[in-house]
Design a protein that fits this description.
Length: about 140
């Protein structure tokens, strides 16, 4: 495997300390860049919530996933924190196999209106007061 290089400071990064930055390209591909958490954290405005390990002072985050891919990403990033999803993001059987931090709405969020997604965010905020909620965004919302 090639060694990773921070796109900010150009120093080597060990695999455990690497933060991937994925930038979508016009052709549908993705440009991956790598950074130290501290390097990226130093460049992100403090008002922007992040989950960088170098920024423990940031408030906890709850996730709202709409798609299967979004759910997989949210579960990975949440590190035990709360993750919520719609009924169409995970099958009943898979949901039953998971334990811990996942809550599944009884309705679909995929293709839902902004009012449906806003209502889901409001429910999450009721259950997790003071937490920021990161919601996966679909085209058109």
């Amino acid at each position: 495997m090639n060694s990773l290089v921070c796109c900010f400071c150009t120093q080597s990064i060990s695999g455990d300390a690497a933060v991937e930055i994925a930038a979508p390209l016009e052709d549908g591909g993705v440009q991956a860049l790598w950074a130290h958490g501290a390097c990226l954290g130093a460049r992100v405005h403090p008002s922007i919530p992040t989950l960088l390990p170098s920024t423990p002072e940031r408030s906890p985050v709850a996730f709202l996933a709409i798609t299967e891919q979004g759910l997989a990403t949210a579960l990975r990033l949440a590190e035990g924190g709360p993750v919520w999803c719609g009924v169409d993001a995970i099958s009943e059987r898979s949901f039953e196999d998971l334990s811990g931090n996942l809550t599944r709405f009884s309705y679909s969020l995929r293709g839902g209106s902004s009012e449906v997604v806003s209502g889901a965010v409001a429910t999450i905020q009721e259950h997790h007061p003071g937490m920021q909620v990161w919601a996966e965004c679909e085209d058109g919302l």
